[in-house]
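Researcher: We're teaching a course module on how sequence relates to structure. For the next exercise, students receive a sequence and then see the predicted structure as tokens, so they can try to spot secondary structure elements on their own. Here is the exercise chain.
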Amino acid sequence: MSVADRSEVGAARRTGPPGGRLRSNPTWWRWLAAASLARLPQTMLPVALVLTAHASTGSFVSSGLLSGASAMTYAVCAPWRGRQMDRATLPRALGWSLLGSTAGLVTTAIAAAAGAPLVVLLVLVVVAAASGAGVTGAYRSLLPYILRPEQLKQAYAIDAVALQLAWIGGPALASVVAALVGPRACVGAVAAVLASGALLSWTLPRRAAASATRRSGPARAMLAQLWVPLLLNVGIGINLGALDVALPALLAGHGRPATSGGLVLAGIFATSAVSGSIYAALPATNPLRSAPTRTVAWVLIAVYGLVTALAAGAPALWLAIACLLVAGLAFAPGDTSAMLLVPEQVAEDRLAEAFGYFAAFGYLGTAAASPVAGWLVTRFGADTGLLLAGLAPLITAVVVPMARLRRS
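Model: And here is the predicted structure for the students to work with:
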């Protein structure tokens, strides 16, 4: 890191008050706003792509293919793009990546409005996703450079709550745009939010690229370190991919607008954000905070999957929605704990790559689940899509303690 970079990062760290408090740190708030604006489009995009493809083709299978193509591209490119971010100067590389993704989404929106065939939309979505892959991990990799060490755990927990809020606002915003303007306008709205995140990112303190000697290391060793959070995130990814398709189908099957599926998803993450905020505010002596992070993660993710699976067998729509809202209470603390396992096990100068792998495995789950859920709800009904959404996190969470027992 150059002298200029050290002084800028040092100045950013000195803006925070003593005692580990975050709320008086302007750099923290700027980082949180930029990261949230960059992340909100990722939560809007699955619903936007499902509704856009359904409006263009009338098929939930096509919806699953378009959403799955985006998720698969993120999954394939996130580790590679994360390593690029570790080797690049931030936030400059962040801004250009976001603007590239914005351009791809604007083109997608124009093509959808012009009635382009599905194959053209698929190509454009892949280009946009490749440009934006790895961005979330790069934002998180900045935190150790702009905050004091004692502030990091709380910052990561608050960041996870912000992600839940993005899952509330994203699907809801996409659904509102679809209802008021039309499904094909959703992708344009995603691009507009993404562009604002790109502009704000350039106001963050500069972080130089990691040195060549520190940033090298075999990917296999990192994967071995991160197998627990990666496995848990696969289950979460499958859950989200299945819900993106199953919820619009569930509402449509009960005579409600398919666009209301995004509002139900927003409700799930609303209850999740409430529990996540409580979890982030707990004192360090609370059993949930003092317990091993791995244990909190697999237990709460298993509970989330179990209650979601129960929604598939609910005899009435209101009861299914109630189960999903209750399940959301376990989601945020479990997801936060899974994410916190990453910085606990990886060096600071490889965090963008590590979070890239973390995101990649989640997107792999989403990419696999979206077309499968589309086929299931078309062939057997929305209940089977909900069952897939529940069983995936439940099974992956159960594997964690079983594997640990076998090793011991």
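Model: If you want an answer key for the exercise: The longest helix spans residues 26-57. The radius of gyration is 20 Å.
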